[in-house]
Amino acid sequence: MDPSSVIIAVTGVAGTLGAALLTQRGSERAKRREIELVRALEDAREYRSLRRTCYVELNRDARQFTTALNRHLHVMRERGVEDADRAALDEARSAHRDRYSEAQMIAPAAVLVRARAANQALTQVYGQVKRLERGEPGPGETLESASRAQYEIWETLRAMRNAMRRDLGVSPED
């Protein structure tokens, strides 16, 4: 057998095996990239679902806290506040606080700015209501000023809701 024939045969076999190996590796890389892309899409979908759930609950609990403040102010005007009234207000406050804490871990900065503003407004009115309830109002604090502040929270909640909707892609950017 001629050595050049052997070299040519070995080179042909090596080339054939090398091409198959390279094709297999390329196919594995493409499959890995496809799996990574699918995982990234699933993660993004899961994160969006998590944000949506958080936003729904935060919106609901902030609205319920605002309504509870309004109801408490009416009770203060109409009759004396009872333990059940205090418990209802504190329950609404607690639910909102839990949702806001969750949003702090999930929501992007644009939403957190609005959620923080709503939380601060709710907390300020809650403090004012509790001081009025104890008969120790701060300077300028009256039932009327607390009612106005409570009413103004609705606009803050609207801004928060709009930021959440934009983040979810439900509403177009401003």
Question: How does this structure look, described?
Answer:
With 174 residues, the chain is mainly α. The chain is rod-shaped. It starts with a helix and ends in a 6-residue tail after the last helix.
Write the SSE topology.
Blueprint lengths: L2 H76 L4 H24 L2 H26 L8 H26 L6
Helix pairs in contact: 1-2, 1-3, 1-4, 2-3, 3-4
**What string gives the helices and strands in order?**
HHHH
User: What is the residue-averaged pLDDT?
Assistant: 88
Which strand-content bin applies to the residues?
under 5%
Report the strand count.
0
Oligomerization category of the chains in this entry: single chain
| Total helical segments | 4
Query: Tell me about the biggest sheet?
Result: none
Shape by Cα distribution:
rod-shaped
Distance between the termini: 81 Å
Key features of this structure:
rod-shaped, mainly alpha, 0% strand, 4 helices, 174 residues
Summarize the structure.
With 174 residues, the chain is mainly α.
